[in-house]
Amino acid sequence: RIRARADSSPRSQLAARQQVDAMAEVAAAEIPQAEKDELYCAYAAMILQDESMEITEDSLNTLIKAAGGSIDSFFPALFAKMCSGKDIEGMLKFGGGGG
Questions:
Q1: pTM score above 0.85
Q2: Residue 38, SS3?
Q3: Average model confidence (pLDDT) for the chain?
Q4: Alpha-carbon torsion (34, 51, 97, 21), positive or negative
């Protein structure tokens, strides 16, 4: 068998970095803090839902801190209240249908 060797030249490494950089439309450093806060809460809530755990202020804070994030203190409380009594699983399924 002939095995192809991975190209590790500086040029190919630069091309790979540029491709990765193109995965996001906006660099993380350019996202306003309020939007980061909202994204942290949304992702944490999805993780909690996926693990069948309750979405509370404390559980959101725990996940966000574990991810190395820091957000304004009112966001997790507000987000937990917003999720309370809602069919989060249904909302997540609704957005993921094929078609």
A1: no
A2: helix
A3: 79
A4: positive
